[in-house]
Amino acid sequence: MRLRIGVALAVVIIAAAALLAGPLSRGERLSDILTGQTPLLAGAARAPGGTADLSGTAALGTDRRPATLRVACDPAGTGLSAALVVPRFAELAPRFDVTGLEGSGGETPLTGILVSSAGSVRSVRMPVRGAATGPDAGFTLTVTGARRGEDPLRGVALALTEPGTKLTWTQASPRAGDPALTATFTPSEGDSAALKGALGGCLAAPF
Question: Are 40 and 33 in contact (CB under 8 A)?
Answer without folding.
Answer: yes
